[in-house]
Amino acid sequence: MADITRRLGWRHLRGAPTAHVRHHRGGKLLHDGPGLSFWFRALTAAVSEVPVDDRELAMTFHARTSDFQDVAVQATVTYRVSDPALAAARLDFSIDPDTGVWRGAPLEQLGTLLTETAQQHALDVLARTTLAAALVDGVAAVRERVAVGLGAEPRLPATGIEVVAVRVVALRPEPEVERALRTPARELIQQEADRATYERRAVAVERERAIAENELDSQIELARREEQLVDQRGTNARREAEEHAAADAVRAGAEAARTVRLADAEAARSVRLARAEAEGAREVGEARAQAQAAWLRVHGEVDVVTLHALTGTRLAENLPNIESVTVTPDVLTGLLARFGTGERA
Questions:
Q1: pLDDT at 233
Q2: Is 224's pLDDT higher than 60?
Q3: Which of 269, 276, 342, 263 is nearest to 307 (CA)?
Q4: In 3-state terms, what secondary structure has residue 237?
Q5: How far is 345 from 343, CA to CA, in rounded Å?
Q6: Which of 154-158, 184-188, 250-254, 309-313 shows the lowest mean pLDDT across its residues?
């Protein structure tokens, strides 16, 4: 849109570099070119502004394939106005001298022309293509056919329009058909995922089995080593016991020898002691016998009275140890008689 400034009855227009401005007054062309800036009178001027930059036209339309399936086509056409004078003559690009806004809708007219032309060629291609082929190669086929068709369309050069590029963004069937078509692929993907999951689980199980086998082998090896250790400990214990037994045997032998020696010495000493005691007893016995013999000999030589006196003396010496004495009249009479006789004697 042109930038217009009002001053009393005059207008000043300042155009953009991408806008081609044509100024007529009284049927004569006064200004013609892009990016112009000039003064004009609104009552006598006819001004048109034609954009000469590249324009993007997005279009969406429906088509039907040869197997009667509806598809939606999304495409974009890039175009430009190559001949502004011709386009301004064929389409209404005139602007309001006060606001700089187009009086008509020229770009909509161009959009309708390009959309209908592109749709016609796309429908022609898809009508002879099955849905499966269209989904596989339809984008390239539609893009090529639309580009060729727009390039060969006579109305576009006659309007001063040049098609720069054609892009087909997407070609999609109806949602139900698309879901139905996605199902086999999803099943295959799910099967692949399940297979990968099973393989991963199998690998995990195999690894766990290998780990369990390694652990079992380790336990077996440990048990074998423990068995060897127990055997070695038993051997060491037996050897130690044997050594202890040998030492105990040597110690017992030495102790027994020492005991025998002590016993022999004790026996010899006992024999000597017994002999000494026997000799002493014999000598004591002989001395006692001699003493007894002498005592008997002395008593045999002493008279009866003296013996009775000695007996009484001994009796008196042992009197404290006698608890009771029984003297019968016969004994007392005999004793008195004897004592009387003795006194008289």
A1: 87
A2: yes
A3: 342
A4: helix
A5: 5
A6: 309-313
* Closest by CA position to 45, among listed 67, 29, 65: 29
pLDDT tens track for 101-123: 998 899 999 999 999 999 999 99
Q: At what angle do helices 106-126 and 131-152 cross, to 10 degrees?
A: 140
The alpha carbons of the chain give a radius of gyration, in whole angstroms, of: 78
At residue 339, does pLDDT exceed 70? no
- Round to whole Å and give the CA distance between 144 and 148: 6
Residue partners of 128: CB distance under 8 A and separation at least 6:
66
Termini Cα distance of the chain: 205
Q: Which two tokens stand for residue 331?
A: 């004994």
CB 107 within 8 A of CB 55: yes
Q: Are 16 and 30 in contact (CB under 8 A)?
A: no
pLDDT of 345 reads 39
Whole-prediction pTM value?
0.53
Backbone angles phi, psi at 303, to 5 degrees: -75, 175
